[in-house]
Specification:
- The chain is built from ten helices and nine strands.
- The chain is of the alpha/beta class.
- The chain folds into two domains: 7-128 and 274-289, Rossmann fold, CATH 3.40.50.1370; 129-270, 3-Layer(aba) Sandwich (Rossmann fold).
- Strands 7-6-5-8-9 form a five-stranded parallel β-sheet, with helices on one face.
- Helix 1 packs across helix 10 and helix 5 packs across helix 6.
- The longest helix has 21 residues, at 270-290.
- The structure holds phosphoric acid mono(formamide)ester (CP).
- Residues 47-50, 121, 130, 249-250 line the site of phosphoric acid mono(formamide)ester.
- Phosphoric acid mono(formamide)ester binds next to helix 2.
Length: 292
């Protein structure tokens, strides 16, 4: 039984296999490799992209999906997470795709060894499928290799599971990662850190912009996000004519994270990330459920 808690569970050859499979699924109609499989999506936090992407990926490979909405489940009657999970597993799904606010939840459920557990985002610790689709999008943009490229992660890095998973994956795959954020949003890290984005614009190949995750802040960090945007918003003036790939996991706070104009710029691949997410998740489901 294979789980996905974070990308470090995949060997480099497995990551290369996922990238190759995703490329093939993007180029050609995929065979129904997961016909007869049933997956449950269990999202304790909101999602637009990840849940839909997993459900479409499963369907494209012939698997059925069932969604349990925790706000309408017996969680509301006090049933514990573990009991909810074991009851769902009693119906013999082939996997449970879970999003949860606690960093440890996917690992706890995986350790129960009842069904394959796939992390769709946990706390500020890990969002492995987002990192793999980001990696795929970068490989596609740079013609198959990102080794030695410099990626700047910009924004609320300390709150971000996209950043923490990404840092682990991208450095492992040979990229240089630098962190750009005001002190309130900067995590403890050995990576190079900068407060001013404009100081590094000439050094970067990729910018990954991140949303300020207001829902995770105990206290408001800024009274005025327009002032924050003056330093960190990726706009046409800041980008100039540099050949920088611009990514964002979504949802984008328009004109705070990225300007309207830059969202329409061909260097911005935010919707391509969403498109690629389906193919990468198809490849991930294939490797986890079929072990090939
Ligand atoms: N990127 C991402 O995780 O988006 P959702 O929260 O909409 O799933």
């Amino acid at each position: 039984m294979q789980h996905l808690v974070d990308t470090n569970q995949f060997s480099i050859p497995q990551i290369e296999q996922i990238m190759a499979d995703a490329k093939s699924f993007k180029a050609n109609r995929a065979p129904l490799l997961l016909r007869d499989k049933v997956l449950i999506t269990l999202f304790f936090e909101t999602s637009t992209r990840t849940r839909s992407s997993f459900e479409i990926a499963a369907k494209r490979l012939g698997a059925a999906t069932v969604h349990l909405d925790p706000t309408k489940s017996s969680t509301q009657k006090g049933e514990s997470l573990e009991d909810t999970f074991t009851n769902l597993c009693a119906m013999e799904p082939d996997g449970v795709i879970i999003r949860h606010s606690e960093n440890e939840t996917p690992q706890i459920l995986a350790d129960m060894q009842i069904t394959s557990v796939i992390n769709a985002g946990a706390g500020n610790y890990a969002h492995p499928t987002q990192s793999l689709l980001d990696y795929f999008t970068m490989l596609e943009y740079f013609g198959g290799s990102v080794e030695g490229k410099t990626l700047a992660i910009v924004g609320d890095i300390v709150s971000s599971r996209v950043a923490s998973s990404g840092i682990r994956l991208f450095t492992r795959m040979g990229m240089k990662v630098i962190l750009i954020a005001p002190q309130q949003f900067m995590p403890e890290s050995d990576l190079p850190q900068f407060e001013e984005l404009d100081d590094v614009m000439d050094e970067v190949d990729v910018i990954m912009s991140l949303r300020a995750q207001l829902e995770r802040h105990d206290i408001p960090h800024f009274d005025d996000y327009e002032d924050y945007a003056k330093h960190y918003c990726i706009d046409a003036k800041r980008m100039g004519d540099r050949d920088i790939l611009l990514l964002h996991p979504g949802p984008v706070m328009r004109n705070i994270d990225i300007s309207d104009e830059m969202l329409d710029d061909p260097r911005c691949r935010v919707l391509e990330q969403v498109k690629n997410g389906v193919y990468v998740r198809m490849a991930i489901l294939k490797i986890l459920l079929l072990d090939v």
